[in-house]
Amino acid sequence: MSVSVKTFDTAAEAAQVLSNDRAARFMGGGTWIMRAVNEGNQSFSSVLLARDPVLRQVQVQGDRVVIGAGVTMAQILGHGELAFLHRAAKSVGGPAIRNMATVGGNLFAWHPYGDLATALLALDATVTLASGNQQQALADLLRDREREPRPVVLSVTLTRPQQGAFRFRKVSRVKPKGISLLTIAANLPQASERISGARIAYGSMADTPVRVPAVEQALEGKTLDEAGIAQAVAAATNGIEPPTDAIASSWYRKEVAPVHLKRLLLEAAS
Ligand SMILES: Cc1cc2nc3c(=O)[nH]c(=O)nc-3n(C[C@H](O)[C@H](O)[C@H](O)COP(=O)(O)OP(=O)(O)OC[C@H]3O[C@@H](n4cnc5c(N)ncnc54)[C@H](O)[C@@H]3O)c2cc1C
Predict the structure, then answer these.
(1) Ligand 1 lined by 114 (C-beta under 6 Å)
(2) Candidate of 71, 106, 177 to mutate for ligand 1, largest count of ligand atoms within 8 Å of Cβ
(3) Is the pLDDT reported for residue 174 higher than 80?
(4) CB 167 within 8 A of CB 264
(5) Would you say residue 173 has pLDDT above 90?
(6) How many Å lie between the centroid of ligand 1 and the Cα of residue 216?
(7) CA of 205 to the centre of ligand 1 (A)
(8) To 10 degrees, the CA torsion angle through 64, 31, 141, 169?
């Protein structure tokens, strides 16, 4: 089966076509889509591209950060205002993948991928959809991302974390660019040295990156020391049923999650 490529001036036009054609796929950097084409995947027959400049823009106004869905991991790494995301962007693949892989594509990456999406989830990001500029919480997009019609994400908006509040850790068996067996992102804002409004997200612990409310609640009002985080570490896998795959079993993921959560929470702020 041949695959056609259609290019549009705006993401909204591509979204319009996508909403009426279940055999079409929007393409970001193509690290997944082109692999599927090369492997003869027959689940789609056309690829939609958009030249929309908004897709490639990064806008920083005060603490408000808007990142176009077509911005690549390499572009994040080259942007000084996005230093808090550098560790997450650098954890995605090797240099060739990071040059192509986009923010938007990472939101739709299948398990066990989605390392940047995990970081964005812990930052309480919202997405702007190309169709009608609708806003949606990233958590809602991730929950419904398999639903038809597929949306086109135009950009991701977030509030820059407090200095030293954001932490990210990807655990893999192959260094430096192995696939995640567990990714943890934590935003730990503090007021009077007590945690206020913690956001914790796991990657590779469910079909999509997920928030971990049990840990967030256990951290509320606590100090970031061994005694203060004890309840949170004990609750590390409450409500979480990780999948078993070629990287790790569900049992193993649950065993190691508290260990890595504890290390992340006690890590010196950078
Ligand atoms: C060798 C290799 C190593 C990898 N390593 C990692 C890794 O370590 N960590 C990790 O997280 N991922 C990894 N990936 C997966 C993938 O490269 C990344 O997740 C990447 O961010 C996907 O982005 P993309 O732009 O290439 O997506 P594409 O291939 O263009 O698209 C992927 C999916 O996202 C959808 N999509 C893309 N952009 C949008 C948009 N703006 N709106 C709506 N839907 C959209 C597409 O329709 C498709 O379903 C790896 C992939 C490969 C091939």
Answers:
(1) yes
(2) 106
(3) no
(4) yes
(5) no
(6) 28
(7) 18
(8) -60
Q: Is 35 in the pocket of ligand 1 (CB under 6 A)?
A: yes
User: Which CATH number among 3.40.50.300, 3.90.1580.10, 3.30.390.50, 3.30.470.20 corresponds to the domain 166-266?
Assistant: 3.30.390.50
Mutate to test the pocket of ligand 1, among 7, 25, 27, 66 (most ligand atoms within 8 A of CB): 27
224-270: pLDDT as tens digits: 999 999 999 999 999 999 999 999 999 999 999 999 999 999 997 65
Whether domain 53-159 has CATH 3.30.465.10: the reply is yes
* Residue located via tokens 């908004």: 54
pLDDT of residue 176: 64
pTM: 0.97
> What is the dihedral sign for C-alpha 115, 116, 121, 127?
negative
Q: Does residue 29 have its Cβ closer than 6 Å to ligand 1?
A: yes
Residue (of 25, 222, 190, 194) closest to 108 by Cα position: 25
